[in-house]
Design goal:
Blueprint (H helix, E strand, L loop, with lengths): L2 E4 L3 E7 L13 E8 L1 H12 L3 E7 L4 H11 L2 E8 L5 E8 L2 E7 L8 H10 L5 E5 L4 H14 L3 E4 L8 H6 L2 E2 L3 H8 L4 H7 L6 E2 L5 E4 L4 E4 L12 H14 L4 H16 L8 H13 L2
Length: about 290
């Protein structure tokens, strides 16, 4: 199965604090790390942990971080032929971690410069794509164009609408699966009636609800598939890992429940590791090699 990812590439600068910073406050932190991130890269790497043919369209900058990001993606078996270099900074995320929760500041840089022509080339050169995954950390006109083109070519597309931005009804209709979290759902639909929403968008909308699990409409009633009980180390990238697991399940023709459960399993492994892509080796070994690939 060949899966395409169109999205962001960031360098994550992570550190831990005892409490979140307030205006004008200075605190001493600990455990500073520089890791690879970006929602697009996170999803591509975790997809590559579960699949052998993941191709990525994205952008890096003209700085020292660019080669580091490309080398990292290649080391995870992600195909980088369609990642372009732009005259801007490589995307950067500064992540505070406080007792397992996080807050993130993003400087998108090159991620905002993806062109329609690049999307055309990506789709034409990868005519055998069976599934495309995207998010909203790149320029929104590129995302909208991607969705239009995938819909026209009948390539299933999964959209993780994060960070939340306005989406037209037409774009939502063209997406095969829409996977926001609770906050993003309220932003997109201006309501907290999640049960009504998953019924209205049955078979399309899945709402990730953190430690409570994932809600969707199973054909009869709204249900929540519970998350696994675990000792959380870092929630960064948990949503991206869920998307990767779910997309793998759907691409391999699992039913909705089983695809959701696979997504939760991958997200759970991520929460037990530091960094959005920290569970790659574990997922590769425990899910792909021992279970998923057999």
């Amino acid at each position: 199965m060949k899966i395409g990812v169109v999205g962001s590439i960031n360098i994550d600068m992570m550190y831990t604090l005892e409490q979140f910073l307030k205006k004008g406050e200075t605190l001493f932190g600990d455990n500073f790390q520089v890791l690879m991130g970006g929602k697009g890269a996170n999803q591509a790497v975790m997809l590559s942990a579960l699949n052998d043919n993941v191709v990525f369209l994205g952008a890096v900058g003209n700085d020292d971080f660019a080669e580091r990001a490309l080398h990292h993606l290649e080391s995870k078996n992600v195909k980088v032929d369609f990642i372009s270099k732009k005259e801007k900074n490589t995307g950067l995320a500064i992540i505070q971690i406080v007792h397992g929760d996080n807050s993130i500041a993003v400087i998108p840089g090159a991620n905002t410069l993806i062109k329609k022509e690049e999307i055309d080339r990506f789709l034409s050169k990868n005519h055998d794509l069976e599934l495309v995954v995207s998010q909203l950390e790149i320029n929104i006109d590129a995302v909208n164009y991607l969705i239009d083109q995938c819909h026209a070519k009948r390539i299933p597309i999964i959209l993780n609408p994060a960070p939340a931005q306005p989406l037209s009804d037409e774009i939502i209709e063209k997406v095969d699966f829409l996977i926001p979290n609770e906050t993003e759902t309220e932003y997109l639909f201006h309501t907290d009636d999640f049960e009504g929403l998953v019924k209205r968008y049955a078979g399309k909308l899945l709402i990730t609800m953190g430690s409570r699990g994932v809600m969707y409409f199973d054909g009869n009633v709204p249900i929540i598939v519970p998350s696994e009980k675990l000792n959380v180390v870092d929630t960064t990238g948990a949503g991206d890992s869920f998307v990767a697991g779910f997309a793998t399940g759907i691409g391999n023709h699992l039913n909705m429940r089983n695809a959701v459960e696979l997504g939760i399993k991958v997200a759970s492994m991520t929460c037990m590791c530091m960094g959005a892509q920290g569970a790659y080796e574990r997922v590769r070994k425990e899910l792909y090699e021992k279970t998923w690939n057999h």
